[in-house]
Amino acid sequence: MYQIISWIIRYIFIILIYYFIYSIIKLIYLDIDAINRQGKRGTDNPYLKLVNRKDRLDFNVHEFYDLYESNTIGRGKGNDIQISDKYISTNHAQISMDEGAYFLEDLGSVNGTYLNSTKIEDVVELENGDRIGLGQVEFLFVKEVD
Length: 146
Description:
Blueprint: H1 2-39, E1 47-50, E2 64-66, E3 70-74, E4 81-82, E5 93-98, E6 101-106, E7 113-115, E8 118-119, E9 124-125, E10 131-134, E11 137-142
Parallel strand pairs: 3-4
Antiparallel strand pairs: 1-2, 1-11, 3-5, 5-6, 6-9, 7-8, 7-10, 10-11
């Protein structure tokens, strides 16, 4: 009787180990897939990369947003980057380029715009690796240096 229980426990333990290995391989695959999608953006423009896990958000949001000379962010349909987050204002923020540098400006949003966890009050210059917080989402500003 003990030998049968011992064999059952062994097989259950082996199955758990294989499931754990499968989970790790799946996570590695998803990370590699995200890196490959970044390479397929097709442009060298600076961009915003989503930091949040998409599956934890209750609305659709893209993984990457290319930035151009002027970019508005908000819930409204007229924005260049439209995010349907209930904590983002209709016209929430703007990212614009001036003399080769990108600047972030809050457009009077109710919940504010955050740069590296600090609420911005004025126009601020963005640096590579800055984190931009809007509502429930956080983006990484990426500007590849030539």
